[in-house]
Amino acid sequence: MQALRTLAIAFVLFAGAPAAQAQVADLSKLSCKEFLTLDKDSIVLIWAWLYGYYSDQDADPIIDFGKLTGQGSKLAEFCKQNPGVDIIRAAEPIYE
Questions:
Q1: What is the pTM of this model?
Q2: Can you tell me the distance from the alpha carbon of 47 to that of 41, in angstroms, rounded to the nearest whole number?
Q3: In the CATH scheme, what is the homologous superfamily, with its name and number, of domain 23-95?
């Protein structure tokens, strides 16, 4: 009975919550200039995505936060000097 009551309360709470807006980021069209204007959380999310995207598919599931941050810092530095380059082209030599 307690589980049913908890489920009913959860349903009521979530039924009134607005649906999250889906966002799509086409990184092949995101320029370095645009990348650098994103909020910190978005930049870190893109760093992490690139880290995973360029990782070996058969690699162990390990995140090296020092490497992730180092590569991200190199990407940010490159983007400061090359604002017109898209983020994927900028990332390839750094993350591969």
A1: 0.71
A2: 10
A3: HNS-dependent expression A (1.10.890.10)
